[in-house]
Amino acid sequence: MKLKTLLLIVVVAMAFAGCKYDWIVPEEIPVIDPDDPSQTVSFSEDILPIFTSGNNCTACHSGNQMPDLRAENAYTSLNSTRYIDKTTPENSRIYNVPRPDGSHYKKLTAAQAALLLAWIQKGAENN
């Protein structure tokens, strides 16, 4: 009887020791008011790193596939009505194609998508 009790305690202890909980921390999405001039979104500091680091869009978009998202060509390549729609920023291809819930191979995070949309809403300047 003591052996069964001991065995039961060991099995229960092993079951609880094997549990692992990963807490999901929600992504912090920046809130940027497009009409507030004090809130700036810089192409060189905020937008360009989305394409060139981490997400590494330049693996495909490096001159052979449009738009060319290499640092030296990204702004010129993007600044056309084909990729940026300043009248309806939500319709911009550079925002819609890699959006977090889209089907593109590389996806933006929600925070990256918010920055990109804010940049377009603020006029998509080369700053």
Describe the structure.
The chain is mainly α. The protein has a domain of 87 residues. It is built from five helices and no strands. Helix 2 crosses helix 5. The N and C termini lie far apart (77 Å).
Basic shape: elongated
Number of helices: 5
Beta percentage is under 5%
User: How many strands, which pairing sense, and closed or not: the largest β-sheet?
Assistant: none
Taking all residues together, what is the mean pLDDT? 86
Terminus-to-terminus distance: 77 Å
Low-confidence runs of at least 5 consecutive residues = none
Global structural class: mainly alpha
In helices, the fraction of residues equals 25-40%
Number of strands: 0
Q: What is the string of SSEs from the N terminus onward?
A: HHHHH
Work out the radius of gyration.
Answer: 23 Å
